[in-house]
Amino acid sequence: MTAFQFPEGFLWGSATSAHQVEGNNIHSDWWAWEQAGRVKEPSGVACDHYRRFNEDFDLAASLGHTLHRFSVEWSRLEPAEGRWDEDAVAHYVEVVRALRQRRIEPLVTLHHFTSPQWFTAQGGWTRPDSVERFARYTQRVVEALGESVRYWVTINEPMVYVRMHYVQGIGPPGVEDFAQARRVIEHLIRAHAAAYRILHAAAGAGAIEPQVSIAHHLPAFRPCRPWWPPDRWMTFVTDRIFNRAFLETLIEGRWSVPGVATQMIPEARATLDFLGVNFYGRQFIRSLPTHRPWPAGSCDLGHHPRQVRERTALGWDVHPDSFLEVLTRWSRLRLPILVTENGTWMEDDARRWDFLLRHVQAVARAMQAGARIIGYCYWSLLDNFEWADGFGPRFGLIDVDYATQQRRVRQTGERYAQLCRTNRVEL
Ligand code: FCB
After folding, report:
1. Which residues of the chain carry a pLDDT beneath 50?
2. Residue 287: what pLDDT?
3. CATH class of 3-223+319-426
């Protein structure tokens, strides 16, 4: 057996997002969506992390973490348009301080699927001025946190966000409309570019020189029936749209997907300092005999084909070799990679650990092959509110008893701590 020693300073940690752990996020559009009965259960007090963050960070520190990804909740900071809640600002200053005191590097996400209710009610990301509104919010956040935060993710999984909220309609505002989805994509790109500039401009005014990215969901897409040309074509198109288009726009300033006129968005050019990769597995593409536009009717995207041998408790594909492939592929962009999410829910914790270990081994192998990877965040520190799936799925290194808010570190958390502390993995 050989071992891989990670470079000194490699960042080890885990990720959360505000709405999934904080609790009582009453001004967010997801809260309103839940109250309207659109999900199986509401987020409620979730993990009560808004009040218990110190205790949770004690656990993270005791598990050897040196990095923690979390999101700042826009709807707490700006509960009504133009009204800033200074207590909420002070709260996040305290959160960052609490991490730094424990020698944990903070990685701040500005938008993780939730927006303020007022914003969504007025048309949200479909409006061109959403860009300015997001920029104003970013400005406030960097004024408060910029002195102590180096790593920033502007938008979590922009293409997943658009698919869930504007194509499938399974999150607020519950839209199923391609024209609107395309507008939203453009505004998210422009919003990212604006935030990128604001974060960098702040460095001149006392903030740390930032490292800015998005957290991009980068599955390995595969044809359901590899021998069937329409499936292969759909796989190519899906990869182009979901994986490549958004990223390439942030590199080249040009939005280009098959069948749609190329659009120049010059301000987005060269707005990635690193690449945030979220990886969960392969997704299989089946073309469907219909003339409805992609992907509403012409394509089925899922985890169900026969070639999947191993699944998570949510039925998602488990395939660490594809993680290696994805990391190797995207390392060609010559940006440092930070794994911003990778994790699983398994009924049996031993399988959760097996998943984590094999994916960290894939990171090591990608690095051996030359990929520059600077950190790894397991999803998630705690069991939490998994959007439309409610509290059923349990991704945590730490088990949460929702009735008592008791935390209990899982074996996986302890074993992962060994990796974090020794900075090496057996291969
Ligand atoms: C990702 C999301 C994250 C969490 C995990 C399981 O797509 O970014 O919030 O729900 O999936």
Report:
1. 296
2. 84
3. alpha beta
